[in-house]
């Protein structure tokens, strides 16, 4: 259950933001439900709820850097596993989710 997952980077707020800023080809995915996303999200994020990740994995580029987050980091970790299984080489998960995010948010 707590074993590291190949291709999954668990990153705290600052390293997550830094890696995202340095990435030239990135996708930022908020896996929370639509009503949660509407209350506030990280700028540039696309909302794909966890329940829809598998079905929408074809919409996610396998070549770019993928960044995922949720409220606490648990749903996004599950989403990361699905994305890795479906061909993404590397996925970055925001540990602690948006609850730990200190950057700005869109509403």
From TrEMBL:
Every Rhodanese domain range: 22-103
Superkingdom classification of source: Bacteria
CDD domains in the cross-refs: RHOD (cd00158)
InterPro entries associated with the record: GlpE_sulfurtransferase, Rhodanese-like_dom, Rhodanese-like_dom_sf
Protein name in UniProt: Rhodanese-like domain protein
Source organism of the structure: Paenibacillus pini JCM 16418
């Amino acid at each position: 259950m707590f074993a590291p997952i190949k291709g999954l980077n668990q990153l705290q707020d600052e390293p997550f933001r830094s890696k995202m800023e340095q990435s030239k080809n990135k996708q930022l995915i908020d896996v929370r439900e639509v009503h949660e996303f509407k209350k506030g999200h990280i700028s540039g994020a696309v909302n794909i709820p966890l329940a829809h990740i598998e079905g929408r994995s074809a919409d996610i580029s396998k070549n770019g850097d993928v960044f995922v987050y949720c409220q606490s980091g648990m749903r996004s970790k599950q989403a990361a596993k699905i994305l890795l299984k479906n061909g993404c080489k590397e996925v970055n998960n925001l540990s602690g989710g948006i609850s730990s995010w200190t950057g700005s948010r869109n509403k």
